[in-house]
Amino acid sequence: MKKSIILTMALFLSLLLSMGSVSFAEDVIKIGAGQPITGRFAFAGKHINAGLMDSLGYANEQGGVDGKTFKYIYEDTGYDLKRAIASFKKLMAQDNPVMMYGESTGVGKAMAPEINSRYHVVYGSTSFSEELSDRSKNPYIFVSGPTYAQQFGVLLKYIANQPKKNNKPHRVAFFYSDTEFGRDPIPFARKLAKKLGIDVVAEEVTKVGAVDITSQLLDLKRNKPDYCIFQGYVVPPIPEVIRGAKDFGLDITFMGTFWAMSKMLLGKLGPDAEGYMGVSPYSYWYMDD
Questions:
Q1: Could you give the percent of the chain with pLDDT greater than 90?
Q2: Which CATH number do you get for residue 189?
Q3: DSSP letters along the chain, please?
Q4: What confidence score (pLDDT) does residue 49 get?
Q5: Partners of 33 in beta bridges
Q6: 142, 176, 192: which is the final residue of a domain?
Q7: The overall pTM is greater than 0.90
């Protein structure tokens, strides 16, 4: 995860240097961030925060940019939208960084109007939102990879190209969290599935984190999808869903978009990760091929 953040930061910094309107009058270049160091996504947020800190520290060790060093300023948002918005505005008022890194799709969508009209700050985040990636509407926002909708497209097109069972349409379930992160690509995915002749037989929606997924498992058992795509989670409840489906004897191929493809998740799954697949736009230091 840290390597992907370093690569993203390198792209951001290249963008900053290419913007003639940006000037660094001070001896330091301030980079701000709001990350969920506590709260329901803390297990991921603390690593992202460390990655941002490490990448900027490494850049400073290499001499910074044109003799100027980076100063990393961050706030713990707790993955709470109101708190994250307040942290964003606090950092902009107190420190006025030239770049901000946000915690979620929800914060990006909420702050986009002010980023574009008031702050004019280069903004990146953990999000791969289709809406935020529209450069005509969000010229200051940088999405560091294929959008969630594009990732869903990769998975659905893969499914469409697989042999059909008994010459019947493929049956797919969407399993997503009740957050902007979870909901972002679903309208696109519904339309694309219909276009590809794929039947969306279930949409399972849960809160983020360790939740009771008994009713969702029973719904999967009732609707018998061939494939199930996760969106809007990092770890829980994915392992519980996959193991529960196996306990029910369900023959489902499970898939995930970027945040459901972390080494952290695969480690939690252990042997149950066999057959799991998904989309990741990055290569990591521990990958051999």
A1: 81
A2: 3.40.50.2300
A3: -HHHHHHHHHHHHHHHHH-TT----SSEEEEEEEE-SSSTTHHHHHHHHHHHHHHHHHHHHTTTBTTBEEEEEEEE-TT-HHHHHHHHHHHHHHT--SEEEES-HHHHHHHHHHIIIII--EEEES---TTTT-TTT-TTEE--SS-HHHHHHHHHHHHHTSPPGGG---EEEEEEESSHHHHTTHHHHHHHHHHHT-EEEEEEEE-SSS---HHHHHHHHHH--SEEEEES-SSTTHHHHHHHHHHTT---EEEE-GGGS-HHHHHHHGGGGTT-EE--S---TT---
A4: 94
A5: 74, 101
A6: 142
A7: no
pLDDT value of residue 172: 98
Query: Which range marks the domain in which residue 131 is found?
Result: 2-142
Q: Does residue 289 lie within any of the structural domains?
A: no
Same domain flag for 137 and 164 = no
Q: Would residue 155 count as lying in a domain?
A: yes
Identify whether the C-beta of residue 152 lies closer than 8 Å to the C-beta of residue 231: yes
Indicate if the pLDDT at residue 89 is higher than 70: yes
**Among the listed residues 99, 105, 95, the one whose alpha carbon sits nearest the alpha carbon of residue 122:** 99
Whether the bond into 237 is cis, omega within 30 of 0: yes
In angstroms, rounded to a whole number, what is the distance separating the alpha carbons of residues 42 and 35? 8
Instruction: Give residue-wise pLDDT tens across range 103-116.
Output: 999 999 999 999 99
Out of 142, 172, 194, a domain closes at 142
Instruction: Kindly state whether residues 136 and 152 are assigned to the same domain.
Output: no
pLDDT tens digits, residue range 202-215? Answer: 999 999 876 799 99
Mention every residue, 6+ apart, whose C-beta is less than 8 A from residue 181: 104, 105, 106, 127, 231, 232, 259
